[in-house]
């Protein structure tokens, strides 16, 4: 095959040129994203039920929804949480579930349940979670001093949002901090009482004045006209002109009885940028869009906004494209330094500029052609796929060096250039194919990990498979063809004498090899001891998802745990921000209820989320400590979380599950256990290292009790009292003004007095026209009650979170505690998910090693020789662990990728070394002048000399290409540094392993062949 293709160099060259052209076209069409467009198998149902208690939301809304969702296909888990005025249900599905169909099913079930919900409840929101839902940037919209904030909200909703949505690549624009205009009616109680009028007279007059006739038409001959009433109101002045009839018969304009004016609707949440109120617009990209094209378009749009709307300031914050730019920069750095160092190392070892030139052509060619595979597999260019390409570049250089070295060696042996190219490729073809297959055998099975990890590994696995497969085609076809073209017309033969640098390396190798062959047992014992020592270092390393990145931004999540208003929440946040005295570059706050459509978290007036960006690490540490002290001293009941700001990776991998949760249900009552009973039970809980789960958290409230006896005596309907309470303390909407899609509510303004005073001064009329104070029919008391009602598939539960190591040791005593209280106990949490993932990972890695063994057994036609390759792996892993430990690294996603890179190169070297030993041994076996031991000794020694150059070149090239990252700074370098440490440590030990351990293990484990004696 190689001979056939090399005989037609022009055809092969043009084919590769065509592939490169098509690959460049495909590259321009590939979407560029931060993360792969993964469907997270979760759907969140959000319920907003104003003035409803947690118990009412659970009983009337969440329970029917849970019962209706149980039959959903692929549903794995379901949790609900009911709080004051809000409720959420989180549905978790199996990863094989088609989420677009699940989303439709959930909406259909919600529609069927709508008729059973309370009449004043709006339709629950259904939110589908996707990686593309993570915003790529946030646009701050800050009104200048004296500008109407409601007008800015209308500008953002009706103009800015639509203009940003029109940008190519934008899928959704979400807004928080909008303010709405309403018309308030403030009755004058004294005037109303003097005229014998009530609030009911005012509300009826306004409702009548804003009535409409729907669907009514009149006939005029052969024409028919739709009929509308001309009494509709459009402004406060219209409302003030409405007539109100007094009991005396007098007609009084409503403006004489109440104050009517425009006001801003009471906010349940605010957005602050610095110390100024404003809005924030989050921008979400389409899955097929290119982020590197979207962000410049967005920045250009903001410049236009600044010119078109000078009354508003615009700022771009939390730009997530920085992470992607860092990954692309790292790939470019790897290519640049890889090329430079490959050239330098090849020149040192081979002394011919044309060989590095061939590497310089083959490396970018392989990379570009790999993007054609991306196009056919519908992959995007993202951080995951780019890391897969970076992972394959090391192997790519390795294959190129091996093929070039072997061709050069064949030519030095006296073969013609054409035959040297053919024989040089054919000799290593089987070994290189096996080495690539073993690398894929280690890596590709990780695709079958469950959860997001497996979905992410798919992109990486395809990227690795693409670049390794292309690198083989380039190494077997393009490299020998380029060699043939560059050296074919050269009249001067290559210098057979090795350069001084390699002669020095060979001298050091020979010295070490002689010492090991003299003390084989001692040397083998040394390597055997290194394996458990190296692997044991892993126990000293910390484990984390992503490496610790030096971030200059931080977040603060705080729950005040007090029944405060949104205004008080805002004032507290402003006080906190002022404590920093401007020692920050940016700060933005989402306070109270967030208006984002895609927000799937908990919405509470008592909570606030702050984002800080600091100029340097020292300033960040000092200010965070200052905030922590301030909160503990001034708000001791508040709970808060202070930490680094999450990037897109963190948001994707962060779990909402607690680490270890103990849940219990009262199966008899199917209700939460009452506080007076629960608190003594908790004092008997088997451990003190626990904290209350949501179902046990408490908040203060006021409970109104209607005095039914007095209501019956004075013949006052209960509905009248309830209606009066809703007008006093609720947000009572009289009617709406609707025009051109804009809705302006007309609301009865609630008094700002204390509720006790309102109960004493507000009067209610009986059937005999006598009036009484409202407080005579209502009793009230303050009480603590459960803040949330939590439930799962099995019903309502309460829980505690356990802290500390190995919580499973408490299981038996916890179950005993539950039995004594007649409670059903179950355990849940991230602890069990992590354990399940670990077991699955170990199983998959064992399968990978087994596949690796099968491939090598087929390659070597031996059951023992593959074990030599397998035993080299723990030595390399131990070396990687040692360097990570020395430099303070951890076991994380990036260091794991580094291990795979290193193992791929190590396996490659070991396979080629054994393959060379087998071929030389077969040649010497035919020599009758040598004994079997002598022929084996000679094969081991000569194979070491032959493979020394490519092994050293590969290792040195890879290590030198990665060293600049160690001394770099910034987000990209912090992310890649654990990968670099793992590769450098593994290859340093791996090089020694390939040079000395492989021949040593071959000597001990491979059986000696008996020579046949010719008769």
Automatic annotation (TrEMBL):
Signal sequence, start to end: none
One Pfam family here: ACR_tran
Keywords, in A-Z order: Membrane, Transmembrane, Transmembrane helix
GO MF, one annotated term: xenobiotic transmembrane transporter activity
Record InterPro entries: AcrB_DN_DC_subdom, Acrflvin-R
Transmembrane segments: 12-30, 333-350, 357-377, 383-407, 428-449, 461-486, 522-541, 838-856, 868-887, 893-912, 951-973, 979-1005
GO CC annotation terms, alphabetical: plasma membrane
PANTHER family reported in the protein's UniProt record: PTHR32063, SWARMING MOTILITY PROTEIN SWRC
UniProt name for this protein: Multidrug efflux pump subunit AcrB
Species of provenance: Algoriphagus halophilus
């Amino acid at each position: 095959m190689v001979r056939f293709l090399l005989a037609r160099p022009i055809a092969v060259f043009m084919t590769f040129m065509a592939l490169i052209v098509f690959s460049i076209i495909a590259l321009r069409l590939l979407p560029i994203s931060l993360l792969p467009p993964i469907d997270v198998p979760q759907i969140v149902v959000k319920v907003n039920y104003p003035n409803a208690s947690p118990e009412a939301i659970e009983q009337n809304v969440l329970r029917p929804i849970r019962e209706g969702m149980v039959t959903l296909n692929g549903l794995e888990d379901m949790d609900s949480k009911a709080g004051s005025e809000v409720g959420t249900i989180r549905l978790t599905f199996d990863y094989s579930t088609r989420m677009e169909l699940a989303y439709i099913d959930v909406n259909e079930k919600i529609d069927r349940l709508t008729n059973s919900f309370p009449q004043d409840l709006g339709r629950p929101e259904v939110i589908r979670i996707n990686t593309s839902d993570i915003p790529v940037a946030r646009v701050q919209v800050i009104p200048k001093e004296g500008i109407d904030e409601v007008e800015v909200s209308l500008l953002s909703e009706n103009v800015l949002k639509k203009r940003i949505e029109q940008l190519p690549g934008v899928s959704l624009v979400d807004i928080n901090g909008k303010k709405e205009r309403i018309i308030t009616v403030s009755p004058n109680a004294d005037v109303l009482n003097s005229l014998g009028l009530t609030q009911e007279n005012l509300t009826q007059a306004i409702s009548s004045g804003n009535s409409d006739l729907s669907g009514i038409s009149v006939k005029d001959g052969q024409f028919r006209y739709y009929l509308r009433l001309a009494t509709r109101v459009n402004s406060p002045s219209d409302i003030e002109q409405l007539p109100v009839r007094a009991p005396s018969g007098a007609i009084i304009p409503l403006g004489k009885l109440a104050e009517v004016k425009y006001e801003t609707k009471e906010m349940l949440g605010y957005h602050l940028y610095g110390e100024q109120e404003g809005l924030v617009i989050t921008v979400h990209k389409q899955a097929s869009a290119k982020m590197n094209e979207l962000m410049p378009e967005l920045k250009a749009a903001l410049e236009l906004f600044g010119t078109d709307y000078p009354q508003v300031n615009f700022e771009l914050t939390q730009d997530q494209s920085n992470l992607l730019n860092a990954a692309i920069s790292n790939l470019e750095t790897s290519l640049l330094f890889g090329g430079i160092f490959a050239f330098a190392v090849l020149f040192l070892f081979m002394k011919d500029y044309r060989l590095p030139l061939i590497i310089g052509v083959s490396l970018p060619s392989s990379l570009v052609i790999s993007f054609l595979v991306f196009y056919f597999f519908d992959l995007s260019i993202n951080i995951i796929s780019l890391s897969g390409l970076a992972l394959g570049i090391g192997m790519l250089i390795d294959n190129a060096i091996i093929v070039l070295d072997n061709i050069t060696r064949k030519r030095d042996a006296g073969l013609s250039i054409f035959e040297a190219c053919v024989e040089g490729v054919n000799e290593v073809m089987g070994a290189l194919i096996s080495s690539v297959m073993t690398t894929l055998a280690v890596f590709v099975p990780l695709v079958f990990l469950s959860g997001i990890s497996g979905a992410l590994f798919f992109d990486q696995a395809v990227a690795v498979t693409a670049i390794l497969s292309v690198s083989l085609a380039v190494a077997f076809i393009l490299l020998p063809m380029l060699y043939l073209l560059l050296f074919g017309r050269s009249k001067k033969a290559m210098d057979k004498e090795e350069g001084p640098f390699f002669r020095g390396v060979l001298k050091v190798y020979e010295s070490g090899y002689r010492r090991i062959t003299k003390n084989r047992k001692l040397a083998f014992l040394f390597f055997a001891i290194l394996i458990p020592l190296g692997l044991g270092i892993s126990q000293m390393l910390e484990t984390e998802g992503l490496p610790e990145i030096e971030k200059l931004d931080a977040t603060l999540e705080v729950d005040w745990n007090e029944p405060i208003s949104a205004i008080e929440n805002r004032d507290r946040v402003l006080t906190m921000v002022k404590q920093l005295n401007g020692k920050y570059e940016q700060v933005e706050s989402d306070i109270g209820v967030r208006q984002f459509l895609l927000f799937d978290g908990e919405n509470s007036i008592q909570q606030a989320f702050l984002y800080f960006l600091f100029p340097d690490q020292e300033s960040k540490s000092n200010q965070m400590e200052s905030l922590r002290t301030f909160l503990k001293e001034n708000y001791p009941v508040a709970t808060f979380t202070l930490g680094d700001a999450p990037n897109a990776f963190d948001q994707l991998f962060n779990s909402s599950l607690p680490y270890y949760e103990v849940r219990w249900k009262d199966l008899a009552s199917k209700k939460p256990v009452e506080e007076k009973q629960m608190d003594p039970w908790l004092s008997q809980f088997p451990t003190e290292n626990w904290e209350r789960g949501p179902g046990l958290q408490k908040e203060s409230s006021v409970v109104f009790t209607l005095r039914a006896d007095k209501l019956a005596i004075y013949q006052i309907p209960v509905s009248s009292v309830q209606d009066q309470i809703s007008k006093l303390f609720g947000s009572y909407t009289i009617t709406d003004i609707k025009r051109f899609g804009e809705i302006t509510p007309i609301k009865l303004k609630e008094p700002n007095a204390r509720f006790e005073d309102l109960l004493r001064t507000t009067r209610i009329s009986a059937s005999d026209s006598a009036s009484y104070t409202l407080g005579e029919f209502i009793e009230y008391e303050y009480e603590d009650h459960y803040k949330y009602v939590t439930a799962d598939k099995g019903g309502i539960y309460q829980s505690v979170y356990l802290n500390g190591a190995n919580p499973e040791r408490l299981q038996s005593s916890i179950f005993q505690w539950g039995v004594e209280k007649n409670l059903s106990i179950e355990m849940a949490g991230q602890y069990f998910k992590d354990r399940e993932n670990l077991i699955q990972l170990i199983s998959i890695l064992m399968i990978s090693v087994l596949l690796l063994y099968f491939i090598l057994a087929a390659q070597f036609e031996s059951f023992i020789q593959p074990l030599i390759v397998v035993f080299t792996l723990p030595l390399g892993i131990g070396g990687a662990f040692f360097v990570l430990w020395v430099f303070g690294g951890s076991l994380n996603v990036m260091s794991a990728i580094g291990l795979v890179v290193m193992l791929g190169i190590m396996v490659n070297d070991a396979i080629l070394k054994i393959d060379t030993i087998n071929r030389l041994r077969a040649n010497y076996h035919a020599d009758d002048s040598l004994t079997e031991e002598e022929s084996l000794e000679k094969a081991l020694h000569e194979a070491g000399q032959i493979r020394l150059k490519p092994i050293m070149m590969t290792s040195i090239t890879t290590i030198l290409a990665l060293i600049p990252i160690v001394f770099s700074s910034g987000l990209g370098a912090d992310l890649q540094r654990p990968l670099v440490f793992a590769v450098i440590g593994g290859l340093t030990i791996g090089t020694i392993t390939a040079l000395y351990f492989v021949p040593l293990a071959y000597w001990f484990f491979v059986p000696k062949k008996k020579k046949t004696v010719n008769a």
